[in-house]
Amino acid sequence: MSYAVKEMFLTLQGEGVHAGRRAVFVRFAGCNLWSGREQDRASAICQFCDTDFVGTDGLGGGKFADAAALATAAAEFWGEAVERRFVVLTGGEPMLQIDDAIVDAFHAESFEIAIESNGTLPVHPRIDWVCISPKAGSQVVQRSGDELKLVWPQAGTDITALETWDFAHFLLQPMDNAQAQANHAAAIDMVLARPKWRLTIQTHKLLGLR
């Protein structure tokens, strides 16, 4: 099986529990909640995505013939040191492409594997860190993991129901759009009202990182 990757790069994780941690990001092409084309945004389930995941033309992106080639490319971005290797598999929706071979190949390269998924597909059971970011209107089947990261506000979201899901960390992230200031205030108010949640912001954007 070959794999379509939009981009791959070394950076610092900008969001969530691992914010500030050195990481190789592997952004897979394709998503099941939006085509990635602006003309389809208004009719998509996820209408607020701020990520380009179309094609394989980004930095470090391309078509990888097999999982070993993909993991080797990620290891080259990381460098020679093998301690605390950390790869974030994201998208789009990475679970459209992740399989046993990818998990085995990254573990063979000494990577701890994290995933950022919308939760509409079951996450591979041997991924080390599972972050689910549910989108209102989608059918989420992955209701357990390490980190639930909810972009806020989202109309139609039952936050009380989300609190029953089996996650170690519940994070609220203000939506980054034209109403960003109001979204920050809404997220802060929600965290103050519901102590199960913790605020997370996109620090990579503040720092000018990818």
Notes on the protein architecture:
Pathway: Purine metabolism; 7-cyano-7-deazaguanine biosynthesis. This protein is α/β, with parallel strands linked by helices. It has a single domain (3-207), classed as TIM Barrel, CATH 3.20.20. Helix content is 21%, strand content 28%. It has helices at 67-78, 100-108, 159-162, 180-193, 203-207, and strands at residues 3-12, 22-28, 62-64, 85-90, 111-117, 129-132, 144-152, 166-174, 197-199. The protein has a 9-stranded mixed sheet with strand order 3-1-2-4-5-6-7-8-9. The longest helix is centred in the C-terminal third of the chain and has 14 residues, at 180-193.
Largest sheet: 9 strands, mixed
The global form is globular
Looking across the biggest beta sheet, what order are the strands in?
Answer: 3-1-2-4-5-6-7-8-9
Tell me the total number of β-strands: 9
The name CATH uses for the topology is TIM Barrel
**How many helix segments?**
5
Task: Summarize the structure in short.
With 210 residues, the protein is an alpha/beta fold. 21% of the residues lie in helices and 28% in strands.
